[in-house]
Amino acid sequence: MIAVLGLLVGVVAGLVLEPTVPAYLQPYLPIAVVAALDALFGGFRALLDGIFDDRVFLVSFLSNVVVAAFIVFLGDQLGVGTQLSTGVVVVLGIRIFSNAAAIRRHLFRA
């Protein structure tokens, strides 16, 4: 219940305050969001499978975001930022849909 309340407060604060992302961080934000979604779907799948561990979830969440941002940074430094960004989104997207399919199978027994 506290987590849901915190989420609602955060969403309302974001809508009211309308924060802006600095220009140098803008290429990394979408990748970080997709990496975070991958960790969330993986955590929910683990919860349904009965193997959820909060430490593993936290490490997965942080490492996904850091590694994805590093790959995009490396691509920017090499001059191929959009290609590596696309690769990161494709890989994480595949993982998200794989976890979503497992969640669907678990919830609907299908």
UniProtKB/TrEMBL annotation:
Query: What domain of life is recorded for the organism?
Result: Bacteria
InterPro entries hit by this protein: DUF1290 (IPR009709)
Q: How does it sit in the membrane?
A: Multi-pass membrane protein
Entry's localization field: Cell membrane
What are the transmembrane regions?
24-44, 56-74, 80-103
Q: What is its main location?
A: membrane
UniProt keyword 4Fe-4S, yes or no = no
Q: Does the keyword Protein biosynthesis apply?
A: no
- Which UniProt key words apply to this protein? Cell membrane, Membrane, Transmembrane, Transmembrane helix
- Would you tell me the Gene Ontology cellular component terms? plasma membrane
Task: Give the family per the record.
Answer: Belongs to the sbp family.
Q: What is this protein called?
A: Small basic family protein
